[in-house]
Design goal:
single chain, mainly alpha
Amino acid sequence: GGDCALPANDGNGKRAKERLAEKERQIILELLAEHAGNISRVARDMDGSRNTVYRKMQLHGICKGYSCAAN
């Protein structure tokens, strides 16, 4: 008992993942604006590393100047 595995993707899971990804993208954009593009400060606010921020920016189609469109 007590198994907490998520059910197989039934179509709703994909939409939830897409909403989560969009929320993460918005948070990154807000932090970039708040910290004038300073990746170190964004990383600190996200409790992560600069590499993580750069990876997530690339994943979400955010350029260094954060003006690129998402994929």
